[in-house]
Amino acid sequence: MQEKQPTISNFMNVERAIDELRRQSPVVIYETGGKAVSNYPAEFLREMEFQQLKSPDMQLLISAARAKMLGLEGRDVRIDASAMTYADVMAIVDPLCPQAPIANALMQSASPIDSMALKLAKYASLMPALLLTPDSMALRLDAADLKAYIETPHTNVLKTAQASLPIEGAENARLVSFRAQHATSVHLALVIGDITNAPPLTRIHSSCVTGDILGSLRCDCGDQLRLALNTIIKAGNGILIYLHQEGRGIGITNKLRSYQLQERGHDTFTANLMLGFDEDERDFAIASAMLKALGVSTIRMLTNNPSKLEALEKSGTTVSERVPLISETHPHNHAYIEAKAMKAGHLF
């Protein structure tokens, strides 16, 4: 594939493609001299659309995580769907489907472009499963643009706005909004007091609508957010980074699907894999870029997650101290916290 220097215009094409997938529309990804394929988001399939798209060349593309959970090899794969029924396809795509997936389906390794297409579906907060059909009249996306978009770190951040935000216990707080130059998600930094004299106490918190806003008892996110904020306020200064990365990066809709799988006895990490995602899809490079834009290179970090420490250090932020953030457990969140300790090595 020809290397291509990224431009804002090229990235806008990718953002349009992401929006098209969200709108239940296919996207054609093409490579100069190669065969163009139309990618239809499988989670939106209904019987009528399936029959309209059906062809002798129809294939189903699923991620390595989903393939592994189905007992296949742990790689992105194309599955021959030409002789499948609608129910057959949905059983492979959706772990919540009541029908068991068919066995011994013909499959082949996905191409690099296929794997990028699955990444595109993830950007759209869709399950990484696509129905592949011959070229169509859908929006066309150059594979080189998509490759450049994926490979460009989200570290070129822009401050989009800032204002004072007096809060209880910290009337000197201010809120700063950021976004990566080639992405649309908005991330926030709540800055309390003077953060210039010493490494500020910092919490990197991923959004959790269910816990932070609705008060869900099935996770510890809301408790950790409030505890972190109170700890920073008591310290007199610090930063709360609030990242738009719901459900460890899978989005609120897939998070609710994960909840359904957890209600069937699976832990939160296994549920993500069953949906076709990695156990944790978050990218903390944006947090380091936000800290750098705030003039901060060294922090004291409020976290129980050693992987988060490693990610910040790898992205150029020095962590001088890890400060534990232990909230209370109860019957509703005990299994969730136990999974974080056992599966992700969180320190409690």
As a percent range, the share of helical residues equals: 25-40%
Oligomer: single chain
Instruction: Indicate the low-confidence ranges by residue numbers.
Output: none
Query: What's the CATH architecture of the largest domain?
Result: 3-Layer(aba) Sandwich
Q: Helix count?
A: 14
Shape: globular
Q: What's the main sheet like?
A: 7 strands, mixed
Brief account:
With 348 residues, the chain is α/β, with parallel strands linked by helices.
Characterization of this structure:
With 348 residues, the protein is α/β, with parallel strands linked by helices. It folds into two domains: 8-151, DHBP synthase; 157-245 and 282-344, Rossmann fold, CATH 3.40.50.10990. The protein is 37% helix and 21% strand. It is built from 14 helices and 14 strands. It has helices spanning 8-22, 47-53, 64-69, 86-93, 112-123, 143-151, 209-213, 221-235, 246-249, 252-262, 268-274, 285-293, 306-314, 334-344, and strands at 27-30, 37-41, 59-62, 77-80, 107-109, 129-134, 139-142, 157-164, 174-180, 187-192, 201-206, 238-243, 298-302, 318-323. The strands form two sheets. It has a seven-stranded mixed sheet with strand order 5-4-3-6-2-1-7, with helices on both faces. Strands 8-9-10-12-11-13-14 form a seven-stranded mixed sheet, with helices on both faces. Helix 1 (8-22) packs across helix 6 and helix 5 packs across helix 6 (143-151). The longest helix has 15 residues, at 8-22. The mean pLDDT is 90.
